[in-house]
Design goal:
transcription regulation, about 220 residues, Tetracycline Repressor, domain 2, elongated, about 0% strand, DNA-binding, single chain
Length: about 220
């Protein structure tokens, strides 16, 4: 998970949770640049000095925040895709569709949260001390894809350059790109069409997919 330091733990972590939730709200509503420690503590309704009782730096909070959001999305995606394990008609790309719907629902339920994740990634890439944060974030995305597709991969041979590992990375990249395109242009993007085309392309390359319905 995206954390390079051990978080400060206290007997009662309620205030820490309040600060993390407040940071989510501020970033989703106003953007990363607006998320000063003062704005975060004001949103939480806490004294400003309380921030450094729980976090050494704002960047430490960002690291933990990304870790929490990624874990929540992984758990939600795993819950959805696990229901497909017993469905013989559920294909590999169907699992990708399900994961996309989890992300789309999360953004619709809490507007700005997915955009905030991309903002935090960009911040990490522009900040040398935080580059590991972005690396761990995308490692978690790839691992989530492997977990979601593992049942299907266990039952099917994948004859592709790079094997199942490369296939999982491709799926993670497609999902990430589909989410970003949808966030940028909800009306103009067509993720379902992208998944249908991917289904057709994979059916040509992976023999086990040829008998499955495509979209």
């Amino acid at each position: 998970m995206p954390s390079t330091r051990s978080p400060r733990r206290r007997p009662d972590d309620a205030r820490r949770t309040e600060l993390l939730n407040a940071a989510r709200t501020v970033i989703a509503r106003d953007g990363v640049t607006a998320a000063s420690t003062r704005r975060i503590t004001e949103e939480a309704g806490l004294p400003h000095g309380m921030f450094h009782y729980w976090f050494s730096t704002k960047e430490e909070l960002f690291e933990e925040l990304i870790g929490e959001v990624v874990a929540e999305l992984r758990n939600a995606s795993a819950s959805v895709t696990s229901k497909m394990d017993g469905d013989s008609d559920a294909g590999l790309v169907d699992r990708l569709r399900a994961a996309f719907e989890v992300v789309r629902h999360d953004e619709q339920r809490q507007p700005g949260r997915q955009i905030a994740m991309y903002e935090l990634t960009t911040l990490a890439l522009r900040t040398p001390a935080l580059r590991d944060m972005a690396r761990h974030q995308y490692a978690a995305y790839r691992e989530a894809t492997r977990e979601a597709t593992a049942p299907w991969l266990a039952d099917n041979d994948v004859d592709l350059p790079g094997g199942s590992q490369a296939l999982c990375e491709l799926l993670a990249i497609v999902l990430d790109g589909a989410v970003l395109a949808w966030l940028a242009d909800p009306e103009g993007s067509n993720p379902e069409q992208v998944f249908t085309v991917l289904d057709a392309l994979l059916a040509r390359a992976v023999p086990a997919l040829r008998a499955e319905p495509t979209g």
